[in-house]
Amino acid sequence: MNERFSDASDEELGRRLRAELPRYVAPARLHAAIVEAAAPAPPRRSAWLAAAFAAGATALVLVLAFVPLLPRILPADPAQRLMRSVVAEHERALMWGARRPEAARRSGAAAHALGRRRARARAHVGGAAPGG
Question: Is residue 43 left, alpha or beta, with left meaning phi > 0 and alpha meaning psi from -120 to 50?
């Protein structure tokens, strides 16, 4: 190799090459082909996108077709709602007593004692209760 270029830096070598070597202009069609190849490709749509859209549209049509066939919920009658709430409260009270047998025995004994007190009060006031 030639010893006179060994001490030159990369920047200096680059300047000398640009200055001393001939430069050629590329043909226009080669330039266009390079620019076209370097440009980012347009976004491609996925192959399954159309199938997924069609499946979604079909499901939507089926849902809309079968919604009128579903049973309708009529507004509840106020008396019906009251009766359901009373029955639900009664069931809750029974279930509470079933879980606590000592409370049920106590409440039964208390009711029996209350009944005896009322009977004594009626007898004390003046005999039997009216209508009995």
Answer: beta
State how far the Cα of 119 lies from the Cα of 125, in Å rounded to an integer.
10
104 burial (CB, 10 Å; 0-12 / 13-18 / 19+) is middle
Q: Nearest-CA neighbor of 132 among 111, 115, 123, 124? A: 123
Length of the chain (residues): 132
Q: Which residues contact 96 (CB under 8 A, 6 or more apart)?
A: 103
The per-residue pLDDT for range 42-74, each reduced to its tens digit, is 777 777 888 999 999 999 999 999 988 888 777
User: Rounded to two decimals, what is the model's pTM?
Assistant: 0.29
